[in-house]
Amino acid sequence: LMDTEIYSKIFSVSDKEPLLRYLAKAYPYRTDLNTFIDFTLSYVPKEGMEKSLLVFKDKEIIGANMFLQTKAKIGRLEYDIVWSYDTKVLDEYRKTEAGTIICGEIFSNKNYFGAGLSGISVELNKRMHAKFIAKSVAFIRLNRYLFKYLFAPFCPSMRKPLVDDSSYPREIKTCLGLFRRLEKAIDLNQPQGNYWNDNLIEFERSTKFLDWRFFTLKDKYQVYALRKKEGNDVYFACRQYDLSGIPLLYVVDYRFSIDDFEGQKAIIKAALLLSRKMKFAGVYIRSSLPGLSKLLKNNVFIMKKGGADIVTRFKPAIQEEYSVFHTPADSDMDFK
């Protein structure tokens, strides 16, 4: 019998069913794939993912590389870039040309960035002479509610269900200012041009991006903003995150000027207060900025070993040494 041919095609909305089957095989530990795909697909008509590549054998997907198009400010200039994620070939097809097809596709995109790479992606990137430009490091700080959840297996009524929108407070009062919960992206007082900083690598936060990222899935994300007397708002976006059955407040995104330490401290304080108010067992946050990482350590956050590599071959991003302002909301880290 002739082997059926392996072929690739650019992702389209009609591929949803085979994509669901493929992702379930490729990432068996991921939950709620349906929501993930609907959410990702919701970005497609706007600009999102028409570069994403699927590799088929017969009618089944055996490998994929997803792309998300966005913009970044590098130094003082803005560029179009793509995030590459979920680069994978199913184990039984590793020896086929599927990997070569994906590799060629990534290689043809000179402006791609990747984060939190799987083993295969790290290998590919080394081969393509990509540069590891930063690490996104996870920090965690637990509170007294942890004990409640440690005993929860013996007492199911103590388990925390997924909380909905209405139970999040409208305001969080901190000694460094008042955070208000945003109802829609347009309520954020953001900088002209959608970037908070110069002279580093920062990814765009347009109203359109924020609207898609945090206001599409009802109840999943909350966004809190601190209005400054002068200058732009400082904000953070968060959601419930279950770590082995223990609910934490996951701060998935934030923006501030990197020399505004008050603003950064305010975000940390507000997140800690909110996690206690929601009776979560602590706060989980990632940082790729040395200044913020230092503040988190000063606030008794524990740093997890390792960290997710942020990688690129894009010339403007690797010609000079820049700090990288990356959060889980930039790439797909937060979907997992």
Structure, explained:
Helices cover 25% and strands 32% of the residues. It has a 16-stranded mixed β-sheet that branches. Helix 7 packs across helix 8. The radius of gyration is 21 Å and the shape is globular. The two termini are 39 Å apart.
Quick tags:
16-stranded mixed sheet; 25% helix; 336 residues; alpha+beta; 32% strand; 9 helices; globular
Task: Put the structure in a nutshell.
The chain is α+β, with helices and mostly antiparallel strands.
What is the quaternary state of this protein?
Answer: single chain
Mean pLDDT across every amino acid position: 87
Rg to the nearest angstrom? 21 Å
N-end to C-end Cα span: 39 Å
Q: Which segments are poorly predicted (pLDDT under 50) over 5 or more consecutive residues?
A: none
Residues in helix, %: 25-40%
Largest β-sheet summary: 16 strands, mixed
> What's the β-strand tally?
16
Our estimate of the beta-strand percent is 25-35%
Number of DSSP helices? 9
Sum up the overall morphology in one term.
globular
Topology readout:
Blueprint: E1 6-10, H1 16-26, H2 33-41, E2 53-57, E3 60-75, E4 77-89, H3 98-108, E5 112-115, H4 119-127, E6 131-142, H5 145-150, E7 171-174, E8 177-181, E9 200-203, H6 207-215, E10 222-226, E11 234-243, E12 246-255, H7 261-277, E13 282-287, H8 290-298, E14 302-303, E15 308-312, H9 315-318, E16 324-325
Parallel strand pairs: 4-5, 9-16, 12-13
Antiparallel strand pairs: 1-2, 2-3, 3-4, 3-9, 5-15, 6-13, 6-14, 6-15, 7-8, 8-10, 10-11, 11-12
